[in-house]
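Need residues for this backbone.
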């Protein structure tokens, strides 16, 4: 999962009331991409490139298998993903923020 350690650079507001964790950040951008663009089921972003001041270009593939051993057990296995399903999607910071608000609103109700 390339560039996942660059959270501080790509998170819209890492100093906000709820700082981003790697997993939250990864999931929020992938879910926002699904919400703003029609993507195939199982598509997960694996490369996140900041577009200065506008958003993030998310590159992803349809993943059908998970890693089965080691410390990353259960994480998506992009090595087995079909390269033909690779798509690049631009996600604005506003779309990600809206996605996070929807998710936290659901947590507050439950």
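Answer:
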């Amino acid at each position: 999962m390339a560039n996942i350690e660059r959270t501080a650079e790509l998170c819209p507001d890492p100093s906000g009331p709820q700082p981003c964790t790697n997993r939250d950040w990864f999931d929020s951008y992938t879910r926002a991409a699904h919400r703003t663009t029609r993507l195939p089921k199982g598509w997960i972003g694996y490369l996140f490139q900041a577009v200065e001041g506008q958003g993030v270009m998310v590159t992803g593939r349809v993943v059908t298998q998970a890693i089965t051993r080691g410390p990353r057990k259960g994480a998506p296995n992009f090595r087995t993903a079909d390269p033909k399903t690779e798509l690049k999607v631009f996600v604005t910071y506003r779309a990600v923020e809206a996605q996070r608000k929807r998710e936290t609103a659901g947590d507050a109700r439950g």
